[in-house]
């Protein structure tokens, strides 16, 4: 998340944007003063997570953003998954429920997986190929399957297939026996192992999860199960006694439980973590508020300050179906007028972000440096912007509505956009949307306004294919769960996407993705704003803190987190 793939305060990036990628090498989280964040956790205790907003959904077929994807990693498993943040290459896709990565046919259209022995749900029922197939088929349900789009885009399902509840069996996924599952693809896709690592590839018992069943309940396959959920307030996880550590080389699962406290004011979270009293010594949270940064300079707090690299792009999507944004000249004028330095300052300054002129961040394979809308000081070229509006017959400007999350830092970003565009006569009206429902709202075209500030992180790090197609393929604009916020449907862009996706040399394809990034920015369906960075302040008793580009959108990978002293707090 993803937009997703980018979002709220449970993980670091979430508090500043939504929806992961870096080249190989361990991505251990580093502190300013050497806080020992990578020490081996002890067995036991409860990790506390303090966050402002609730998760989007407990159901992984629905949720797909940086705030919740990391949580899913504690309670759900898939055939494959991202390596733990502590791994030598944490961006690698590794087997999870499957014994190995997929065996692919010579034509690249058929992928076969074999399940490990001893897999069970939290109720003790076995996880077989039938449950894996059923869970995956839920992605096609028009109401439930609003999360990650890759399964639907890659697997060769019948055109009228609408999931197991409405249509029934998915014939292009075969289960010849209880341990074998075979997938038939629309076309060769060499990164299919990564597709199956997405959260909506989670198995569930056949027949479960219809309607709103998984809104407040879950059926766990990971090391923890749901003990208590009070929406907007608390989530408590306890050990899943039917999880077998011998089958799981990814999740250390050292704590006995996790407790998420939801709905806290961000400033209150910072105060609690600075004080570090009681159970808060065992707490982690997202990025600190900009006003808190100067207070972290004391030696005691510097030793606990966690700095994580930016891997997600914050951008403003422009709805190309709305007048006058359907005119490329108007979108280009907005691109020229934006003051990226003001956006960064509104987000907390250079400690929390850096300006971006590209869709692909530098941490993603395929990134290409370019700036199609330059200005001498980085604050926007008002003259060039006004000339384009004049050419479009909009010399007096116009009014547009900008969707933003109802958070202080997000509103500050919106106000920076207001001030920048006011210089060319464009009046920006801010529409505040609750964080927990933000991505569902802006991902529903019928509810979209003219523009929205959001973010995107790669869903797996080795390829730009998780950036460009989800955001700009015009054939994948959905009534719900839509990630192409610009609703761009450009024939040339669609053709180039197909050509690059067909390439079997991923490195060569990434070069082409970088070129296509530049071509798309020339059309200005979105305005890249910044790459968000993270400064966090974990409790002094928390350890096992490693960054994960894939699993945690650049934030802390929960699977390795634990406590130094389980009796403390």
Chart the SSEs and their pairings.
Layout lengths: L29 E2 L14 E5 L15 H10 L4 E3 L10 E3 L7 E2 L5 E5 L14 H9 L12 H5 L8 H4 L6 E5 L2 E5 L7 H4 L28 E7 L3 E6 L17 E5 L4 H10 L7 E2 L14 H4 L3 E13 L9 H10 L2 H7 L6 E3 L26 H10 L7 E7 L2 H15 L4 E7 L1 H8 L8 E6 L11 H5 L18 H11 L4 H18 L2 E11 L5 E2 L5 H4 L9 E2 L6
InterPro entries: Peptide/Ni-bd, SBP_5, SBP_5_dom
Keywords: Signal
GO molecular function: peptide transmembrane transporter activity
How would you characterize the overall build of this protein?
With 569 residues, the protein is an alpha+beta fold. It folds into 2 domains: 13-220 and 537-560, Periplasmic binding protein-like II (D-Maltodextrin-Binding Protein, domain 2), CATH 3.40.190.10; 309-533, Roll (Dipeptide-binding Protein, domain 3). 24% of the residues lie in helices and 18% in strands. It has 16 helices and 20 strands. It has helices at 66-75, 129-137, 150-154, 163-166, 192-195, 266-275, 299-302, 328-337, 340-346, 382-391, 408-422, 435-442, 468-472, 491-501, 506-523, 549-552; strands at 30-31, 46-50, 80-82, 93-95, 103-104, 110-114, 173-177, 180-184, 224-230, 234-239, 257-261, 283-284, 306-318, 353-355, 399-405, 427-433, 451-456, 526-536, 542-543, 562-563. The strands form 5 sheets. Strands 1, 13, 14, 15, 16, 17 and 18 form a 7-stranded mixed beta sheet that branches. A 5-stranded mixed beta sheet has the order 9-10-11-2-12, with no helix packed on it. Strands 5-6-8-7 form a 4-stranded antiparallel beta sheet, covered by helices on one side. The longest helix has 18 residues, at 506-523. It starts with 29 loop residues before the first strand and ends in a 6-residue tail after the last strand.
């Amino acid at each position: 998340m993803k937009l997703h793939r980018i979002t709220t305060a449970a993980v670091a990036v979430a508090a500043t944007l939504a929806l992961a990628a870096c080249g190989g090498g361990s991505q251990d989280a580093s502190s300013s003063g050497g806080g020992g964040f990578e020490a081996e956790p002890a067995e036991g205790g409860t990790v506390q997570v303090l966050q402002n907003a609730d998760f989007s959904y407990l159901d992984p077929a629905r949720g797909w953003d940086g705030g919740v994807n990391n949580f899913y990693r504690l309670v759900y498993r898939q055939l494959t998954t991202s390596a733990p943040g502590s791994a030598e290459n944490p961006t690698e896709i590794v087997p999870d429920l499957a014994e190995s990565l997929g065996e692919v046919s010579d034509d690249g259209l058929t992928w076969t997986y074999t399940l490990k022995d001893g897999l069970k749900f939290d109720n003790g029922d076995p996880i077989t190929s039938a449950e894996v197939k059923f869970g995956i088929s839920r992605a096609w349900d028009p109401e439930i399957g609003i999360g990650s789009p890759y399964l639907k885009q890659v697997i060769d399902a019948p055109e009228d297939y609408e999931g197991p509840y409405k249509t029934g069996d998915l014939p292009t996924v075969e289960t010849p026996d209880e341990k074998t599952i075979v997938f038939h693809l629309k076309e060769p896709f060499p990164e299919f192992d990564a597709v199956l690592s997405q959260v909506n590839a989670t198995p569930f018992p056949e027949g479960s999860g219809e309607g709103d069943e998984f809104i407040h309940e879950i059926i766990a396959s990971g090391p923890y199960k749901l003990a208590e959920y009070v929406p907007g307030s608390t989530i408590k996880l306890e050990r899943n006694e039917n999880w077998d550590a011998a089958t799981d080389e990814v999740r250390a699962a050292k704590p006995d439980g996790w407790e998420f406290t939801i709905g806290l004011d961000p400033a209150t979270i910072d105060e609690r973590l600075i004080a570090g009293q009681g159970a808060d010594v065992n707490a982690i949270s997202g990025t600190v508020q900009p006003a808190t940064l100067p207070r972290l300079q004391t030696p005691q707090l510097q030793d606990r300050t966690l700095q994580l690299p930016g891997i997600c792009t914050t951008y403003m999507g422009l709805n190309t179906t709305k007048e006058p944004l359907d005119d490329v000249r108007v979108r280009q004028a907005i691109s020229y007028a934006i003051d990226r330095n003001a956006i960064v300052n509104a987000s907390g300054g250079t400690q929390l972000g850096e300006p971006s002129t590209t869709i692909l961040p530098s941490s993603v394979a395929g990134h290409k440096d370019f700036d199609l809308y330059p200005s001498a000081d980085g604050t926007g070229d008002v003259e060039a912007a006004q000339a384009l509006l004049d050419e479009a017959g909009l010399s007096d400007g116009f009014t547009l509505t900008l969707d933003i999350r109802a958070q202080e830092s997000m509103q500050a970003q919106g106000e920076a956009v207001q001030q920048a565009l006011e210089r060319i006569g464009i009046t920006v009206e801010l529409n505040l949307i609750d964080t927990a429902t933000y991505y569902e709202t802006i991902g529903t075209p019928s509810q979209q306004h003219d523009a929205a500030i959001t973010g995107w992180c790669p869903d797996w790090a080795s390829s730009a294919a998780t950036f460009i197609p989800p955001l700009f393929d015009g054939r994948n604009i959905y009534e719900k769960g839509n990630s192409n916020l610009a609703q761009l449907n450009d024939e040339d862009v669609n053709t180039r996407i197909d050509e690059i996706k067909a390439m079997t040399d991923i490195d060569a394809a990434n070069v082409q993705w970088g070129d296509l990034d530049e071509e798309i920015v020339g059309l200005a369906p979105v305005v890249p704003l910044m790459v968000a960075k993270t400064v966090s302040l974990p409790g002094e008793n928390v350890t096992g803190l490693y960054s994960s580009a894939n699993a945690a959108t650049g934030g802390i990978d929960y699977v390795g987190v634990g406590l130094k002293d389980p009796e403390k707090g």
